[in-house]
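Schema walkthrough. Field components (list of strings):
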Amino acid sequence: MNAVDLKKISKKFHQFTAVKEMNLAIQPGEIYGLLGPNGAGKSTTIKMICGVLPPSAGEGHVLGYDLQREGEKIKQHIGYMSQKFSLYEDLTVLENIRFFSNIYGLTKKQAKERMEQIIQMAGLEGRANQMTGHLSGGWKQRLALGCAIIHKPKLLILDEPTAGVDPVSRRLFWEMLYELSAQGITILVTTHYMDEAQSCDRVGFVFDGRKLLEGEPETLIKEMQLKNLEDVFIKLVEQETQMSVKTRFDKLSFIKEGEDAAL
Amino acid sequence: MQRFKHIVIKEALHIRRDRASMVMLIMMPVFFMLMFGYAVNTEVDHIYMGVLDNDHTYESRELVRTFTTSNYFELYSYYHDIKAIDTALDSGEIKTAIVIPKGYGSDPIESEIAFFVDGSDPTVARTALQSGSLIAQSQKGMTLQGNFRTTVWYNPSMESRQFTIPGLMGLIMQNITVMLTAFSLVRERERGTIEQLMVSPIKSYELIIGKMIPYVVIGNIDFLITIFFGMVWFNVPFRGSMALLLILGNAFIFSALAIGMLISTVSKNQLQAMQMSFLIILPSVLLSGFVFPRDAMPTFIYYIGYAIPLTYFLDILRGIIIKGVGFEIIWQQTLALTIMSILLLTIASIRFKKRLE
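Field assembly_structure (string):
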């Protein structure tokens, strides 16, 4: 059974169709990267997989639960973390962890055990009673990941988790993801960093609500005879929009003219 | 149930951490009660009066003294001609004036005294006119014909304070409680923390009621403060059961918090929540019967009043405090508040769920 299994899933908002007949199959234990420009429909797809947004058409299962009817059950078994830090800054580290452990119905013993592990994993020893708002970006992000996996989810969904984080923290974060993946957790991640995308087992390119291409990063690069994943990404967008991404600085001739006129 | 409990705990922590807001929540009822308690006094006395005495006799001076010793009027100045009186009324330095004609002393009954009243503020004018004619009547030795005896119940001295202070308590309670919850959900939306809650197994009603509970406690503290200021500071006699008032007060606190919650689920940011709160608070000041008696309103407006929780709460407050009535008299108002609370919270929960999608 696939961890995520979408068949011709669509989502319409009034006139606008954000996702068009999307098929997506993610195997258990896989790290799957969902790539695409802003507004391509990545976030909508993720919201549907989280059980927050029911699809307008199509059929889908997440961890074996039906997307249309069993959203509540899906929520209990997935972990989610978004680009925006969504823990409480006016609560301490410990209070945040405790709140989420209780929201997912952990027993006192489980909660205590995992609290210690999460603090260790995030490198927050000795800072358990600090206000979360006072932590630096990397710590916040690792704490958010800790809270997202506190209930041992089988599927972890990460929406641009490393946006605006320094390179060291990003590397640390991905080390943690490999660790989780090795323990058998399926990971679905969206990102704009192509080095991160390259670390995924498989990636899928989404554009204008459709999935254009899918495969292992190395295979895709070879097939398209390009240097790296970034070039694959840009080439795909160029093909779709019939537009060159190359800068057209010559058109900005007024900059030079302005200089002359000023003299 | 565990989830619910921990939402309550989390919300209480937020409130405790926000010291400035905490102080505000306690100081607001104190400040409002003191400021408005003195301002809403509709009793008018010591109205400035100007006098033009053309008679200069013992009798004319006696007449002026009767006015000035009545407590309603205060002698501002003597004037020497009618023009000066006119100017003084125009400028507003005096609100009333009497003009005593020549020959008043020799024939008080037949001479015509002119009494001018500045009608621009009807409340002042009415009081001046009433007390003015009463004094004039007693002075001329006239008595009311027939055997007319009136008795005023509940508030025999007709002190306006006994009526306005309980109403003010209700109004202040409404203004504070609606605001409390109006910001609660929208704040999480602005900070982005709502996203993490959305993907968790929390049910929308657990979140909404859970977030509300700590504010019920604050609402009760504020209620005790307003009662203290009403009864002790402003000395309004309390005729009914305090326990009953405290219990029924919660029916109102719930309904007002529920309005705030609904605002919070509908608005996109704190500014919108603020605007919407005012949209509710301002009309309720007038339509609930706080200022103007609802009996005098046109039918349509009168019925709108029934949609405002404050209307029922004012009945409860005035009923228990001024009249000392029991639950058997105000159970309908309590029921209305309870139904309103349940209805508003249900709508808020459904709306919140819809908003997620």
